[in-house]
TrEMBL record:
Organism taxonomic ancestry: Bacteria, Bacillati, Actinomycetota, Actinomycetes, Kitasatosporales
Protein name, as recorded: Exodeoxyribonuclease III
Residue stretches making up the Endonuclease/exonuclease/phosphatase domain: 3-253
Gene Ontology biological process terms, A to Z: DNA repair
Gene: xth
Organism: Streptomyces xinghaiensis
Matching PROSITE patterns: AP_NUCLEASE_F1_4
GO molecular function, one term: double-stranded DNA 3'-5' DNA exonuclease activity
Highest taxon in the source lineage: Bacteria
Active-site residues, as the UniProt record annotates them: Y106, D150, H253
UniProt entry tagged with the keyword Magnesium: yes
Keyword entries, A-Z: Hydrolase, Magnesium, Manganese, Metal-binding
Cofactor note as given: Probably binds two magnesium or manganese ions per subunit.
Cofactor annotation: Mg(2+); Mn(2+)
Site positions per UniProt: Transition state stabilizer: N152
Length: 268
């Protein structure tokens, strides 16, 4: 399963996303910051052959937007999480597949001292109880949950290169990091990539286009796979599909891909 912020799907498609999609082995792909209405996407991007797609654009045109691509037809689709403010904001969509619910999340980025940060805080306040309830409902039905996406929070110092310079900036504020701790400790989710890469810096998934951040690997690890515990224990490997060079990037984020063993009884 793969999660990636495409930083505008139409632009990404022109710069290499289509070729990446043709080669990926992922069965489910969660996209964030699509920034397009479905009708604005070329047919081969909106509904590629061999994929079932769910698109949740933002009511504010040209902003946000999440999508989920799955090789298997979803059993159910839900847009939003029951929020009057955010359900039409292109921030969350989820699908049910056999035994698992997969969500694509684009958490607001925020900006200290502005309404954007207040918006982020309101989103977090609503989303945490939803996550807890989702896990509880899934457990009652014998299902697992995976919420992939751009969470826009670096949890620990190991999750961004220049953490000292960012201690008072959105994305690494103490209260944001504490909220993410609650996602793991109270809501019952696991940081899959960190568990598969313990004790190391990164692996980063976002690098600013400014300066030589990508070349110097001066990035942030903000694109996360948050999974229920039993699913996390079935994660086999995780990788950030970092482009070979700056020129080959089709987004300022890189795909974060985790291989899970979700085979049912008797499957090979």
């Amino acid at each position: 399963m793969t999660s990636v912020n495409v930083n505008g799907l139409r632009a990404a498609a022109r710069k290499g996303w289509v070729e990446w999609l043709a080669e990926t082995a992922a069965d489910v792909i969660c996209l964030q910051e699509v920034r397009a209405e479905p009708a604005q996407l070329p047919d081969g991007v909106r509904e590629p052959e061999g994929w079932h797609t769910v698109h949740a654009p933002a009511a504010a045109r040209g902003r946000a937007g999440v999508s989920v691509y799955s090789r298997r037809a979803p059993e159910a689709v839900r847009i939003g999480f029951g929020s009057e403010e955010f359900d039409a904001a292109g921030r969350y969509a989820e699908i049910d597949l056999p035994g698992i619910t997969v969500g694509s999340l684009y958490l607001p980025s925020g900006e200290v001292g502005t309404e954007r940060q207040a918006e982020k805080e309101r989103f977090m306040a609503e989303f945490l109880p939803y996550l807890a309830g989702l896990r509880e409902r899934a457990a009652a039905g014998g299902r697992e949950v995976l919420v992939c996406g751009d969470w826009n929070i670096a949890h620990r110092e190991a999750d961004l290169k220049n953490w000292r310079a960012n201690r008072k900036k959105a994305g690494f504020l103490p209260e944001e990091r504490a909220w993410l701790t609650r996602v793991y400790e109270e809501a019952g989710y696991a940081d899959v990539v960190r568990e598969l890469h313990p004790g190391v810096d990164g692996p980063y998934s976002w690098w600013s286009y400014r300066g030589r951040a990508f070349d110097n690997d001066s990035g942030w690890r903000i694109d996360l796979h948050a999974a229920t515990r039993r699913l996390a224990e079935r994660a086999l490997k995780a990788e950030v599909e970092r482009a070979a060079s700056h020129e080959l990037r089709w987004s300022d984020h890189a795909p974060v891909t985790v291989t899970y063993d979700v085979r049912g009884p008797g499957e090979g």
